[in-house]
């Protein structure tokens, strides 16, 4: 995939599902300098905190690419989204999306892009000729973020840890496994979009051996406890061959995303299951911390929540968005001193 | 995918690789009544034990579909195979194959099929619009075969159990998850070929709720302990929502298929991990038996191997190909009495 031209105009459309704005929120948080604003309709009750602009205003501000920043669990676009993307292409913008439903599968959009001479970027398209995983030990240090559920902050945690590691002078690279991460990082592989036989092999490809003593910080996906997506999480664990795991959890989340009949697992149970599965390809894997998403709490309650989990699990606990990732970086330095 | 018309003419062509005949051998073993014969050239040294017929004789015997029963290591068809498939289409046969290389990717074959009004069945193509899994409890009883490794007899076990259940008067259906099983059953979904996000959903689609008190016997894939494919196995476990698991193992297999550096897990450890993972969507799942592939042993040693595992795990153990599946069916009847 060639590089996606920036800056982006973030498309929220008429989204009414806050969790479905994950891509837009991720970009607004981690790459605001790449975004000229957000384009949303009056029936969208949410903002990601950027300037609200129309399509035309986005063009005037110099946007090069419209990013479809919304997703429902099935990853499909409704007719209005497609129509807006067509309008953007006609206005001279490239269009990027990370949905299962591909932009190139929309004939009207393909025609509009061809007529306008702009490109369509389906960031979920996997690379051709991925290998199956082999599980052989490879050089380099790797950390994987794992979660109690989908959308609990695994990408945020991996990005925050990458930046904190770099700030401490470590060679460290974020490895994106989802559409938002790919748009933030500029490269990566959408693991949930590869053919099932190649999940682990895709992660081995994404995070190849490294000899510089540095770290790959790999973005986790799904949860071993999510009945829809645990296969992806399992292959990711095995392909990552992680030296270190960081468990991510959203405080107050009681039922799994999209599955109100399924309860979020306990943190100790979840961490134990992840360590057990990870040992298949990384026998010495260890947990180095917990990242809590405490957005629902005030600061005192957030600190108390971190302290409570720290007491329960005996690991550094932080909300990386609120309190930074330093405690976990310190634990990594302690556990993996040269 | 609509059902593949039977009977089949099995195509062996000029195959010189015995392992590559797996699909043809599976059909000849489990669905000989669906096969009018085998079509092989003089330079093919192997038979799968059916009558050797020409294309024309196959047509005269009433064949409806030519099944490409061979695969070379690359999963590709050479020019002679394509030419023979074209000849079969012109002779009025549908053509089915489970190769990576798709029949619909061969322009000459597509044209011949269109001209003759016959269909091409790429049995690895997943259905369009698969849902993501939801893990909600659904009606009906389901059994899944799981394994210590790939290619240890999970399809054979599921088919043998289906027939043994039927012979005891139970409503029972085999649910195929791989290409050979799909050709035996006439329908199914090649789970390893679906996009990773949809593994569990594909299995929920393959084995929908049933209200007749009968059983679905679902063919397992891969192994939770195989670093290449455990993601597939995990999604399959969760989508299957199995009431009963049968563990499959090949006696004497010491390292994982394709990964000589990885050891086959112990049976107790493997069964325990499968039960633990399965409980996410089926809390009351239980093991009902073990199927050993004892092809490498003489009969006395095979019986001794079964007895040893029975003593270790406290479950009925059989080689279904050699000794039948009755002990496991009896355990199912005991555990799930109405």
From TrEMBL, chains A, B:
Residues 132-329 form the D-glutamate N-acetyltransferase-like C-terminal domain. It comes from the Bacteria. InterPro entries: DgcN-like, DgcN-like_C, DgcN-like_N, P-loop_NTPase. Pfam families: DUF1611, DUF1611_N. This is Putative NAD-dependent epimerase/dehydratase family protein. Gene3D superfamilies: NAD(P)-binding Rossmann-like Domain, P-loop containing nucleotide triphosphate hydrolases. Residues 59-126 form the D-glutamate N-acetyltransferase-like N-terminal domain. The lineage of its organism: Bacteria, Pseudomonadati, Pseudomonadota, Alphaproteobacteria, Sphingomonadales. PANTHER family: DUF1611 DOMAIN-CONTAINING PROTEIN, GLL3100 PROTEIN. It comes from Sphingomonas yantingensis.
């Amino acid at each position: 995939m060639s590089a996606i031209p920036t800056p982006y105009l973030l498309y929220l459309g008429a989204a009414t599902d806050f969790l479905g704005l994950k891509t837009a929120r991720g970009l607004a948080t981690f790459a605001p300098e790449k975004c000229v604003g957000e384009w949303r309709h009056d029936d969208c009750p949410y903002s990601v905190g950027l300037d609200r602009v129309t399509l035309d205003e986005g063009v005037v501000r110099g946007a090069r690419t419209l990013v479809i920043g919304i997703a429902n669990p099935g990853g499909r676009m409704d007719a209005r989204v497609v129509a807006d993307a067509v309008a953007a292409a006609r206005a001279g913008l490239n269009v990027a999306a990370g949905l299962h439903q591909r932009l190139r599968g929309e004939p009207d959009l393909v025609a509009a892009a061809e007529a306008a001479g702009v490109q369509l970027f389906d960031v979920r398209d996997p690379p051709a000729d991925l290998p199956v995983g082999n599980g052989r030990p490879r050089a380099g240090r790797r950390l994987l973020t794992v979660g109690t559920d989908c959308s609990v902050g695994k990408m945020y945690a991996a990005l925050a840890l990458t930046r904190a590691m770099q700030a401490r002078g470590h060679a460290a690279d974020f490895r994106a496994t989802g559409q938002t991460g790919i748009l933030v990082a500029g490269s990566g592989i959408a693991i949930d979009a590869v053919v099932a036989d190649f999940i682990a092999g895709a992660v081995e490809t994404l995070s190849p051996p490294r000899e510089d003593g540095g770290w790959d910080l790999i973005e986790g996906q799904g949860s071993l406890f999510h009945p829809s997506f645990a296969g992806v999480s399992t292959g990711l664990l095995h392909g990552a061959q992680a030296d270190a795991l960081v468990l991510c959890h959203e405080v107050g989340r009681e039922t799994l995303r999209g599955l109100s009949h399924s309860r979020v697992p306990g943190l100790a149970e979840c961490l134990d299951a992840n360590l057990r599965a990870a040992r298949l390809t990384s026998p010495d894997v260890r947990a180095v911390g917990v990242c809590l998403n405490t957005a629902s709490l005030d600061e005192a309650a957030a600190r108390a929540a971190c302290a409570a989990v720290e007491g329960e699990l005996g690991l550094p606990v932080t909300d990386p968005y609120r309190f930074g990732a330093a405690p976990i970086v310190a634990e990594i330095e302690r556990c993996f001193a040269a």
